[in-house]
């Protein structure tokens, strides 16, 4: 059974194999709505907006403290390229999506569901097998043509995240040069042990520009596929083991 | 150069979008080749002169319609659609997430383990698609809002 809802300004899809119980979907979509209500910088009453408007630290929720601590750890893990401070405000959205998908996947596993995927705005966590008992197949979208798939990978437990600047609307900044566009990289897809790792590293590596794929190569547990503006893809040494031949 | 490229990207998405619309509506919608040129003049929103004598079978009434501001998660997207003779003749971005006009070239440090290939389209079917689609999703929402206004006239 598969359901899609529009939450956080993007479609979120959950497919669970072998169940028609709607309660699982309702629980997950309710969770994503809660995350949106707390972390959306577009909602003036969200906790993150209140913090950006001066809410004293003593009033922050424990979860917010934890998320901001993870953001700070990620900043250090990524040589400072992952940085939620932009124009004097905190924006943890580069981490919260992957974190929330990962939490949602944990919620399903705790109810003994093992064959599913959760996808939010192109970031994915898979688990187990699809309805035909095959590995899940994930297509990497062509950044030059949204209708096309340029690579198919198969996975059973991984997280896959793609960062990019489609429609030339840059949503990731190089924290060391915030006024510059990120050069030449059209999209960067990262496969990690889970979507939390894949998403935070995809965000940081994308901000590094062309050097990002080298950063993914040198980080244990991650593989990546980068598409540059000359339509050339650069990929890491272990990426090919995921590739389904065309 | 960037604007030219932007125009191409918008044209691609626009053509894709109009293909979707074509499936949804019986009236054909022709994506004009001039979209990129129109866009290169920048985000302007001048109302088209209302013409009463040339209202063809098209479902949209002439004019320029401003779409809703849609949250692309990392920024807002808003478009306007210009309808002439019942057809979309221009789609302009009024807002989208922090466009930076500057571009720099960063040397890639040579890493011997990395491999390269030219990208090419694949026909295989997949369960799930990964890609950074926020802005294009929001683009479609904003455009459909503009077009629904055009239908109401």
Please give the structural blueprint.
The complex is a heterodimer of chains A (246) and B (153).
Chain A: E1 2-7, E2 10-16, H1 22-39, H2 47-52, H3 62-77, E3 85-86, E4 89-90, H4 93-110, E5 116-120, E6 123-127, E7 136-142, E8 145-155, E9 159-164, E10 185-192, H5 195-207, H6 212-218, E11 223-228, E12 232-235
Helix pairs in contact in A: 1-4, 4-5, 5-6
Chain B: H1 2-24, H2 35-39, E1 63-66, E2 70-71, E3 76-84, E4 87-95, E5 115-118, E6 128-130, H3 134-152
Antiparallel strand pairs in B: 1-3, 2-3, 3-4
Task: Describe this protein's structure.
The complex is a heterodimer of chains A (246) and B (153). Chain A is an alpha+beta fold and 246 residues long. Chain A is 32% helix and 28% strand. Chain A has helices at residues 22-39, 47-52, 62-77, 93-110, 195-207, 212-218, and strands at residues 2-7, 10-16, 85-86, 89-90, 116-120, 123-127, 136-142, 145-155, 159-164, 185-192, 223-228, 232-235. In chain A, the strands form three sheets. Chain A has an eight-stranded antiparallel beta sheet, covered by helices on one side. In chain A, a hairpin with a 2-residue loop joins β3 and β4 (89-90). Chain B has 153 residues and is α+β, with helices and mostly antiparallel strands. At the A-B interface, β2, β6, β7, β8 and β9 of A face α1, β2, β5, β6 and α3 of B. β12 of chain A pairs antiparallel with β5 of chain B.
